[in-house]
Write a structure and sequence with these properties.
The complex is a heterodimer of chains A (301) and B (245).
Chain A: E1 7-16, E2 19-29, E3 34-39, H1 45-52, E4 60-65, H2 73-79, E5 80-83, H3 95-105, H4 110-124, H5 139-150, E6 157-161, H6 169-184, E7 188-192, H7 196-199, E8 204-209, E9 212-217, H8 219-226, E10 231-235, H9 242-249, E11 252-257, E12 260-265, H10 268-278, E13 283-284, H11 289-299
Parallel strand pairs in A: 3-7, 3-8, 5-6, 6-7
Antiparallel strand pairs in A: 1-2, 1-4, 8-9, 10-12, 10-13, 11-12
Helix pairs in contact in A: 3-4, 3-5, 4-5, 8-11
Chain B: E1 6-17, E2 20-31, E3 35-39, H1 46-53, E4 61-68, H2 75-81, E5 82-85, H3 97-108, H4 112-126, H5 141-153, E6 159-163, H6 171-186, E7 190-194, H7 198-202, E8 206-211, E9 214-219, H8 221-227, H9 233-241
Parallel strand pairs in B: 3-7, 3-8, 5-6, 6-7
Antiparallel strand pairs in B: 1-2, 1-4, 8-9
Helix pairs in contact in B: 3-5, 4-5
The chains are: A alpha/beta (301), B alpha/beta (245).
Chain lengths: 301, 245
């Protein structure tokens, strides 16, 4: 990408007293990119987003979002949308009232806000009455309204902090279809999630651990490079704790995945012996982002 | 403290909210000793079922029986033995982690020696040790959830009912929460939880698949996979409910 990045972060550090929440991170996000921000709970993801949105003053470092710096709050505010982790709509207002309020906050005229709300609700596939109170809506529909409220003023960069937590799988898929459509319209989407299947949809992913970015690449490249040793998937007889067995025998590292185990084999001979001893029938597995997350973030814990 | 052995049986349980049939004739038996998983699409009735088990809702018809050590408990004894972890947690934003635990200690009248032992174990396995003095309002989403769990586990309930405890929890913490629940289940706690993660469903001792208030399948996950000739629970879910997860 040869244009100015939508999000540019240089040596960002954020401290709360003695605690360093964000520790010297740098990255940039291109226009129209879906950028995933992953990490363990408490890794500093939300703190970073809040700094990018101008809601928190960094201890040091440089930030530019959609061409604006946090020192230009009005400009920044006009160019970004933020859907925070906690529910940001008023449950006792109707859908229409919430959106009218969001429009007024953005200094839109009632006419503009109404027109734009209607377009957005159509765009999100919202299928409930607009005169319905928000608290009467199911989780997925609330998130559609919250997204509409966050992008009402047509921002260039959209920050979504765990937009799909607690939403059904079907509603999650619908929500991600929306994210893709927004990216196609050249909007930059900055998103955090704990669902690794969703993370696979991102163009690039930054993996955060204890305030630092420990990996940054496309999902496919992360999956290719995180594992130097072969990965296998296998069932194990009942009562066999393969995590322990793999460690004791030196065969490698095993993580449970449902009824199966996923084993990164560092010592093929020990692994073969373990398979024979425990009568395992492993087959080679392709690393997923969940595997990558467990390996890279798990190593730092 | 020796864990009481709990048993729950539901017979033809129904619950309607106006014209909506949330539970439509569900019969189940739950026992101590393993995690009991509830899965199903949105609106399947999982939350309603958990709320009925917790005594927060009355069924419209059908019977619900709970036994502790083989006997029908008095209401207060049942209340002491039961803990419910709702999907939307409400902790006190201005209390720190350790203050929450002390508050729950006083609420349940736990003695100091037991409190020391249990709270340090819980802080350790939830990874909240380092954050004991942080206020709940300042915790990340996943840590907040883990603090909620530590609070309900503090009095060592015989029955623990959890509604989607792993939502908003990162993949590593999700496994830690799981390991934590499993260790309590193995010590004899009756743990029943709803989850939208099918890898978690596969690791339960028993699983019930609900859709639109009806029980579609119930049993040991490994046996269900064999019976349904499926390689994973996602496949069963898709075949039985017509949706992906």
């Amino acid at each position: 990408m040869n244009e100015t990045p939508s999000v540019l972060v240089k040596n960002l550090t954020i401290r709360f007293g003695a605690f360093t929440a964000v520790d010297d991170i740098s990255f940039s996000v291109g226009k129209g990119e879906i950028f995933g921000f992953l990490g363990a709970n408490g890794a500093g993801k939300t703190t970073t987003i809040r700094a990018l949105c101008g809601l928190l003053t960094p201890s040091s470092g440089e930030i530019s979002v959609a061409g604006a710096t946090p020192l230009e709050p009005e400009l920044l505010k006009a160019r970004i949308g933020y859907m925070s982790q906690r529910f940001t709509l008023y449950p006792d207002l109707t859908v229409d009232e919430n959106l009218a309020f969001a429009g007024a906050l953005r200094k839109m005229t009632p006419g503009q806000a109404k027109k734009r709300s209607e377009e957005l609700l159509d765009f999100t596939g919202f299928s409930f009455g607009r005169a319905k109170l928000v608290r009467e809506l199911p989780g997925g529909a609330r998130q559609q309204v919250a997204l509409a409220a966050a992008v009402l003023h047509d921002p260039q960069v959209i920050f979504l902090d765990e937009p799909t937590a607690g939403v059904s799988a079907q509603a999650r898929e619908q929500f991600w279809a929306l994210i893709r459509r927004m990216a196609k319209q050249d909007k930059t989407v900055f998103v955090t999630t704990h669902y690794m299947d969703e993370a696979e949809e991102c163009g690039r992913i930054a993996l955060m651990s204890a305030g630092k970015i420990i990996a940054l690449d496309s999902p496919a490249n992360l999956e290719k490079t995180a594992f130097k040793n072969p990965l296998y998937e296998t069932l194990a007889p009942e009562g066999v704790n393969l995590a322990q067995e793999a460690k004791l025998s030196g065969a490698g590292h095993a993580e449970p995945a449902g009824l199966k185990w996923r084993v990164e084999v560092s010592n093929p001979a020990a692994w073969e012996k373990l398979c024979a001893d425990k009568k395992l029938l492993p087959h080679p597995a392709k690393p997923t982002l969940e595997d990558v997350f467990l390996k890279l973030v798990g190593a730092g814990k | 403290m020796a864990q009481q052995k709990a048993e729950i049986s539901l017979d033809n349980l129904r619950k309607n909210f106006g014209a909506t049939q949330a539970l439509d004739g569900v019969s189940l038996r739950l026992e101590s000793g393993g995690i009991y998983g509830l899965v199903g699409p949105n609106g399947a009735g999982k939350t309603t079922l958990l709320r009925i088990l917790a005594g927060l809702l009355k069924p419209s018809s059908g019977s619900l029986g709970i036994l502790l050590d083989g006997k029908k408990p008095q209401p207060q004894a049942l209340k002491d033995a039961l803990a419910y972890f709702p999907q939307e947690q409400s902790l006190y934003p201005d209390l720190s982690c350790i203050e929450h635990l002390r508050f729950f200690r006083d609420l349940y009248g736990i003695d100091e020696r037991e409190f020391q032992e249990r709270s340090s174990r819980l802080l350790e396995i939830t990874g909240l040790e380092k954050f004991q003095d942080r206020r709940a309002g300042q915790l990340s989403g996943g840590m907040y959830k883990k603090l909620g769990l530590a609070c309900v586990l503090l009095h060592s309930p015989a029955i623990l009912l959890l509604d989607e405890p792993t939502i908003g929890v990162d993949p590593i913490s999700r496994r830690e929460v799981w390991a934590l629940l499993q260790s309590f289940a193995r010590e004899g706690m009756l743990v029943a939880m709803s989850t939208s993660y099918l890898d978690e469903a596969e690791r339960c001792a028993r699983v019930a698949l609900l859709e639109a208030g009806k029980l579609l399948l119930e049993g040991d996950p490994a046996e269900l996979l064999k019976q349904e000739k499926a390689s994973g629970f996602a496949e069963i879910f898709l075949a039985r409910t017509g949706t992906a997860k």
